[in-house]
Amino acid sequence: MQTKIGKIYSENGFFCPLKAITEAEAKELRKDYEAAEEDLQGDLERLALLKAYPNRLLPSFDSLTRNKTLVDAAKEILGENILVWSAALFIKEAQSSQIVSWHQDLTYWRLNDIKEVTSWFAVSSAQKEAGCMKFIPGSHKNRIIPHIDTFDKNNMLSRGQEISVEVDEEQAVYAELNAGQASFHHGLLFHGSGPNTTKDRRIGSAIRYISASMKQETGDRPMVTQVSGNNDFGNFKILPPPKGRLLEEEFELCRLDNELKKKLLL
User: Which uninterrupted H or E stretch holds 199?
Assistant: First the structure.
């Protein structure tokens, strides 16, 4: 029988909010990340890797991807065998004009199926004024829509990618989250976010859960972790949890995977 999460997700293409940890626990998670930023101050390469691979470089973020509430919700959508394909941080600084244009995630990842769900986890408060996620309900029932590259300097996407058809902003649902809460959205759902007009950073981790049955269309095997089930299907490089915090061996793994992802991501 379909659960409440599954039913709402199936109809709308998203579900929110879902409380994963307490606000106090989220505050500790943020402190760990910002302490790592301090530790790496001035090292632009490692700071970029930290933002792209927090779950490989900070055990606290690996634990977040394994959070029972998040994984159980992902299992309702994807089934038992689940991998974490990435868990990158999206950070809008205070009073930032940065936005994310309307787009569909699965346009660019070169995965062979649509058995993916993104859990957008709020490390800090993500209200409308802070540039929270916004969704167009039911738009996941479309297939891939053509996108164009705008190269807008205020767009957080790598090439300013955006859907090439008109999106009715009045249909948008704002996924406001308190720290410690998460939303879940389909890889074909139209989504984006506005600027952060508040005096605090907006920090979120986009945890990409995929069915282990998925694979890259290119046959490449990016590194992933398995957070549910026993069958990994052999399509990815399965790694154990990180052995420690900001370890050089983990940075090297991230460097290699980052080079592979640059080739993979359209």
Answer: none
Is residue 26 classed exposed, middle or buried when 0-12, 13-18 and 19+ CB atoms within 10 A define those classes? buried
The larger pLDDT score, comparing residue 168 to residue 177, is at: 177
Q: How many structural domains comprise the chain?
A: 1
Q: What is the CATH number of the domain that holds 31?
A: 2.60.120.620
Local structure of 113: helix, strand or coil: coil
CA 188, distance to chain mean position in Å, is 14
pTM above 0.85, yes or no: yes
If you search the block for the tokens 């399965």, which residue do you land on?
238
Cross-strand partners of 98: none
From residue 122, alpha-carbon distances to 91, 96, 180, 205 in Å are 10, 17, 6, 7
Calpha distance 140→214 (Å, rounded) = 19
